[in-house]
Amino acid sequence: MKTLLHICCAPCSIACIDTLRQEGIEPVGFWYNPNIHPFTEYKMRKNTLVEYAKSIDLKLEIENEYGLRRFIEGVYPNFDNRCTFCYTLRFEETARYAAEHGFDQFTSTLFVSPYQNHALMREAAERAAEKYGVQYLHRDFSPRFREGQDRARELGLYMQKYCGCIFSEEDRYKKKPKKKKPEVDALQTAEKLV
Ligand code: SF4
User: Is residue 184 predicted with pLDDT exceeding 60?
Assistant: First the structure.
């Protein structure tokens, strides 16, 4: 079966490609992640994947669209439901590409991440498959997530620090309030007592 593998980034692709190859499936990689922000991060993730694909002899197709405006328009005003739009955007383009280029089925490296909503992703992938008349190959790659990330570190691949969109980049900083140093707290407490 000719299989198109949507790839969100090189580190996440490691365990997925390995799993598929162990099953006897040789996937073709597909880069389409137009909402990664900022553009420098988009380029860094894409370039890392291009180099990694060469190193493991993986055929890679690239959709070079950068779509910040389209993404923002798509998620406005329900920013908290953005992931549904994001999954649909990426899987529909993957399914369309697969159908137009003679692939039988597609899947995605997003299914390796324990941080993604797998139920929502699966629904979006199945809808996209039906819309374009290709099969969606369901695989939960997440049991091998840590193994893949460890391997990426060993290989010295660029490791991103957030999911990808502008909102997840904001969350990266919002979720980590700076802690006061214990000695400062102690000093302030002592001052209050004086
Ligand atoms: S948090 Fe991740 S999955 Fe959700 S919209 Fe942003 S990039 Fe997409």
Answer: no
